[in-house]
Each structure stands twice: as structure tokens, then as C-alpha cells.
Amino acid sequence: MEVTGKVKVVNPEQQVSASFKKRELVVTTDEQYPQHILIEFTQDKCDLLSSYKQGEAVKVSINLRGREWVNPQGETRYFNSIQGWRIERLAPEGPGQTPPMPAAEAFAPATNLNEDEPDDLPF
């Protein structure tokens, strides 16, 4: 899965235990109702965030993770997390940028036209 948007926050690396570290990234999606998505990068993936700054457009490859936890009272709880494993910059889109037009050679001219055939187009 992928999330695209702009970097809102890149948190510093957290050493959770002697053998586990994580770093959090918040990406704001670009849609009618923007969402602020918290994505965790763990272990050696923490270093992937070092060169990213607030405001950059990015595409982040993610995995959804879920886990079960039973508290001391015996109640079962479920937790979800979003784990990032790749991030890449997106090219900034300027207001005048349009996709390139295909080459003219890609379209062959029609050769079997018959002017006497009825036209069934509605306009």
C-alpha cells in the first residue's frame, strides 16, 4: 500500500528498548478532507527519514500491522499501526505543467472512410 502527501512532521529517533528503535513521520494527504497519517519506521528503516523536511511531497510504501493484547484484568484489546518501509520524493507539480503529448506517429490516419455511411454520433 502507499500513502502520498506532504511531510508535516519528522520526529527524532526514539530508542524504545536496548534492541528496538523507531522514528515517526506524519504525512498530510492532499484530498478534499486532508488526513494526517502517522507512519512508523523501525530499526534500520529509521535512517530513510534523515533527508526529508517539512513540506516535501512524498510517496510512502506502507504495511498495516495489527496486534492483540490482553490486559491484567483479562480484557482483550486490539491495536493497529502503519509501518513504513520505503519513502520517495515526488516531483513538484507547477501550475503550468501538463503531461507530455504522445508523438504524432503513434496515431495512424484512417483510410477506410465512406462519406455515404450514416453517422450515428449524437452530436
Automatic annotation (TrEMBL):
Highest taxon above the source species: Bacteria
Biased composition (Acidic residues): 114-123
InterPro entries: DUF3127, NA-bd_OB-fold
Residue numbers spanned by region Disordered: 90-123
Pfam families: DUF3127 (PF11325)
Protein name: DUF3127 domain-containing protein
Species name: Flavobacterium cheongpyeongense
